[in-house]
Amino acid sequence: MVRKQDSIYALATPEGVSAISVIRVTGLSISEKFFNFLGIERKKPGVFLRKITLGDFSEKCLILYFKAPRSYTGEDVIEIQSHGNMVIVSEIFDVLENFGFREAQAGEFTKRGFLNNKFTIDEAESVAVNVSASSVEELRMLEDFRLGKVGHFFSNVTKKIEGLLVTIESQLDFSDEGAVGSISKNNIKKEIAVLKGDLDNFLRKYSPFQSEMMKKKVVLVGQPNVGKSSLFNSLVGGKVALVSNTPGTTRDVVRKNLFLKGVEITLEDTAGIRTGQVSEIEKMGMGLTNESYETSDLCLEVFEPEQKIKKKFKDSVLIINKSDLLKVHTKKNALYVSAKTGAGIEELRKLIYKYIKPDPKLSLVTERVYKAVVKANNSIESVRGDDIFEITAQQLRDALLELRYVYGNFSNEKILDRVFSKFCIGK
Ligand code: GDP
Q1: Does one domain contain both 368 and 325?
Q2: What's the rounded mean pLDDT across residues 282-307?
Q3: Is residue 84 part of a domain?
Q4: CA 335 to centroid of ligand 1, rounded, Å
Q5: pLDDT tens column, 127-171
Q6: Which one of 3, 21, 51, 226 is CB 3.0 to 4.6 Å from 304, fit for a cystine?
């Protein structure tokens, strides 16, 4: 069923200067007047080159008209491609407002497409995932989800549960009249075990996706003056952290995000750890160093050649900086680098990647989907006792409810809004 909705518009391309900007309009009640303004016959979908009047000037635009229901939203959709200039875009917005259209909220286009049965909820969610993925790794890990394999799993499991429920409920209905097409308790137990096996496998195979978990934290620690800030700058490729031969320069944690082969990492430079006479501020800095270490995925403990090499941080990786001052590299379990000459920096990048690269077997689904499977799995306890049919039926109904909550039961607007609010505006 196609629902009546007001007409909305949004910029579909990023804000700023670009070759072109795309403004999208969708609605069922887009007025004849607007079509006239664009010089398009309402019944004729297609691509049109039009000069449109915008206040004191005109702009040549490419206009695409997708006629309902053959469009992304299932409604009439018009795409206006103008020059990528925000002044022009804002003038076009004014025109659209004057025609009574309102600016879309996040995800509203996709939500309309979903409500008009253009795609399923997992396809809609995968649109958001595709748009927000920040690395090749993320796209690979979400591949099953993006290709609809997860949706397929849901529909199989749901069908299995429904089938089992029909069988069990027919047993309950006819139990007074003796077993009609009777199914043994053992068979039920077996079928439930298979079902639980499917859900367990799903939970083993997938992890819930949180964009934060994709970012790995790498921290540089060590005594003052060993060259942590210099290494930090070499790795991020710029002068971000202050370099000085005065000990105790870095107090706050300095952080910067960078990509290593498509994996995003947050690199942190920390206050040097030393004992003896240190100011209160430096002590606070060292406290932050420890916090940074505790929450890191990889700790690089930096030393300089003349130092006694004894690790202070558990599980840290040994890095010896200032290798330019050395003729021979004697330590076997350390990586020798020089922030000054750049020697070993590429190896250091490779070493970091080796430690933080995601498990190649890891596959992800959205948190919402993962939680539903956890709850469905919890609903189905291993069945014991004599009331097996009654109890199992209830457990299966509960599990079904959880799974439908994800993929089917969208009578509640709030749930829908929660799903689509994660989108960007214009999607
Ligand atoms: P931090 O206190 O550990 O952050 O060390 P800095 O990066 O501030 O560097 C301390 C001093 O060591 C500065 O004078 C740097 O120029 C010097 N330094 C850093 N890296 C190297 C290096 O690879 N070789 C040499 N010879 N000096 C370096």
Answers
A1: no
A2: 92
A3: yes
A4: 16
A5: 777 777 767 777 888 888 878 888 888 888 988 988 888 888 777
A6: 226
